[in-house]
Amino acid sequence: MSEIEIKNLSKTFEAEGHVVNALNNINLSIEKGDIFGIIGMSGAGKSTLVRSINFLEKPTDGQVFIDGVDLASLTEKELRKKRSDIGMIFQSFNLLEQRNVIDNVCFPLELAGQKKKEARIKARELLNTVGLAEKEKVYPSQLSGGQKQRVAIARALATNPSILLCDEATSALDPQTTESILNLIKEINERYNITVVIITHQMSVVTQICKRVAIIDNGVLVEEGPVEEIFDSPSSDAAKELIFEKKVRYSPVDALHAEKKIRIVFSENSAYEPVISNLILKYQSPVNILKADTRNVGGKAKGEMILGLPDGDELQDNIITSLKESGLTVTEVKEDV
Amino acid sequence: MFDEKTMEMLLIGIKDTLYMTLFSTFFGYVLGLPFGIILNVTRKDGLKPNRIIYGIGDFICNIVRSIPFLILLILLIPFTRAVVGKSYGSTATIVPLVICAAPYIARVVESSLNEVDAGVIEAAKSMGASTMQIIFKVLLVESKVSLFTGATITTGILLGYSAMSGTVGGGGLGDIAVRYGYYRWQTDIMIVTVLLLILIFQIIQNLGTRFSMHIDHRKH
What we know:
CATH architecture of the largest domain in chain A: 3-Layer(aba) Sandwich
CATH class of the largest domain in chain A: Alpha Beta
CATH topology of chain B: MetI-like fold
Number of helices of chain A: 12
CATH superfamily of chain B: MetI-like
Number of domains of chain A: 2
Helix content of chain B: over 70%
Order of helices and strands of chain B: HHHHHHHHHH
Helix content of chain A: 25-40%
Radius of gyration of chain A: 23 Å
Number of strands of chain A: 14
Structural class of chain B: mainly alpha
Strand content of chain B: under 5%
Strand order of the largest sheet of chain A: 6-7-8-3-9-10
Oligomer: heterodimer
CATH class of chain B: Mainly Alpha
Distance between the termini of chain B: 47 Å
Shape of chain A: globular
CATH superfamily of the largest domain in chain A: P-loop containing nucleotide triphosphate hydrolases
Radius of gyration of chain B: 20 Å
């Protein structure tokens, strides 16, 4: 039995007469100790999905099982108890502004009725873990975004949860801070064997720490699997769009326009060969490099290139075949890059 | 400037004004704070939306608030007599002041609580907080600055209303101003009472603002 099991989950919202299908028949299993990414463009329904895991959003249809327990079967009180076993952090940190750092971390323990003294001991230990031990008396307004998220993480861990939900937890942070927060989450995942679910619209977050990923598009789960597999050969349009990140980082350049474009991904093993030079020498025909990048996917270096191929169907087929033979993943690209 | 008798009268006037203002604010909050919490919790985007309860509360609030204070004062005379035994004097004035203030306070409280970031409430829910815990540990605490600012404004308004009650024998500085300034044309006494009212208002407003700033941890 998986730790989190989502079965045929649908959610519709009714707003002034018209019905919005936020989620459509989602099925998902997340294993104990996993770091699971749920990625999609804004409005895809991923925030609603993560809120179904702790029932902040009650599904219209379908079930959510945590450790085999159907959340819909719980009473209001049992559900609140269950929620304290599922920590959550947010894009806007959501710290209590009128409480200092240590009282924020103590808050969930206070809710659970734990003695103040014990709560403080636990809170200090957690502040140590997140590297903010010397800030315990400070109020949130005096902290930077990254520090606030660290406090929020300590707070989410106070009740020793077995699951940590991260809702766009790094979207409000700069790249360096994002990386340090992600490293912290990874460290926590390893140290406490806590299952982490990460909601994001940034592929870089997924490739940096997630083991598995699900792609949500318009309320539908379009693709799911190990991050490496999906990064190498995305099959859905949504996955391609997220991986190519074209809208975010590249604007189409007319001069680099090519009729036929392909994306190749190098893994560590195939990176030694001078693939492109060999290709040009072999076919005596120019190949245009439209884009090249290296990325860290689950700790492995991945090279990525978008090539514009010379005209001629046969020639193009031959090039693709020979690239595949040298052990590269090849995907045809229809979008502008 | 004034003889001893007048001075004594003014001192008693100050005392009565403060007595009416502070007691009516206090009892106004005894009624208005829970009322405001109920309004906030049951509103459409509240913790426990309830159209019927909100509708009734909203209606009562609007009815009472739409009656001018002076009319309310007269309308409530039988009720006041039943509660405190007489219908004139400063103690009697507290009754209509409280009735007038409670729905106003409820509105102020409702909107203060509404300022609390929905994300913070959601975070508390995600930790397993109950509705009561959210009200007492999140809503009231996070909005305390706004609540105190609202209380300061309310106290100022009640100071003004307590003076207005002078027209029907309410006691306090307003009463003195009406009796000496209006009926006897003793402008000097009227000016002094007005200056005293301004002074008291300034003190209340300043103390309130300073206290609100003192308890606010959001910006330092």
